[in-house]
Specification:
The model has no long low-confidence stretch (mean pLDDT about 85). It is built from 5 helices and 4 strands. By secondary structure, the protein is α+β, with helices and mostly antiparallel strands. A hairpin with a 2-residue loop joins strand 3 and strand 4. Helix 1 packs parallel to helix 2 and helix 4 packs antiparallel against helix 5. A two-stranded parallel sheet has the order 1-2. Strands 3-4 form a two-stranded antiparallel sheet. It folds into 2 domains: about 80 residues, Rossmann fold, CATH 3.40.50.300; about 80 residues. The chain is rod-shaped, with a radius of gyration of 36 Å. Helix content is about 65%, strand content about 10%.
């Protein structure tokens, strides 16, 4: 019979013979689609190779759930990965899928490194602005202790220093908000 399955009593069949029978029935029924859950289980290498040969010529839709990497490499041209409740589609066989996953991993790692570098840069910039604000504040305190012979000169100078200090604090806060927005 087809796929090397003779007409046997199903009770006397081995797991591999039963799997071959089910596959033969599906392929000979001229169906539009096959859903196969671990179709290579109970098959020896010869049976797997024969199945691969038959499925390569199957013109209908084929949805396979399998852990057999060799089988997947030989039969599939699209993989759907179900992860965290989300389905992602990958074109190609299993080896192509692994390459695409590695590229994704590298890309995510590079993005994460950029994120870390940007956050560190912003933190350094915010700290620098805070230091500048403290310097200006200390300068203002020192200036207020000095006696000024000019009437409004000291106050005008302090106002200028105060606005610079405020500007530095605002710049530091702005950078802190950007850091918080990064996550």
């Amino acid at each position: 019979g087809k796929l090397g399955v003779e007409q046997l009593d199903i009770q006397t069949m081995s797991g591999g013979e039963e799997t071959r029978l089910k596959i033969a029935q599906a392929l000979s029924a001229q169906v539009h689609g096959i859903l196969a859950d671990e179709p290579t289980s109970h098959l020896d290498r010869e049976g797997i190779d024969f199945l691969i040969g038959q499925l390569k010529y199957f013109t209908g839709a084929l949805l396979v759930i399998s852990h057999d990497r060799y089988f997947l490499d030989e039969v599939v041209d699209k993989i759907w990965e179900l992860k965290d409740g989300k389905i992602t589609e990958y074109w190609g066989n299993y080896s192509d899928f692994l390459r695409q996953k590695e590229e994704e991993r590298k890309s995510q790692a590079a993005e994460y490194e950029q994120f870390i570098a940007e956050r560190a840069r912003l933190e350094r910039a915010a700290e620098e602005k805070r230091k500048q604000a403290r310097k200006i504040e200390q300068k203002a305190k020192g200036a207020s202790k000095k006696k000024s012979t000019e009437g409004g000169g000291r106050l005008a100078h302090q106002k200028s220093i105060g606005s610079k200090e405020k500007k530095m604090h605002n710049a530091a806060k702005s950078l802190e908000h950007r850091i918080a927005a990064l996550g």
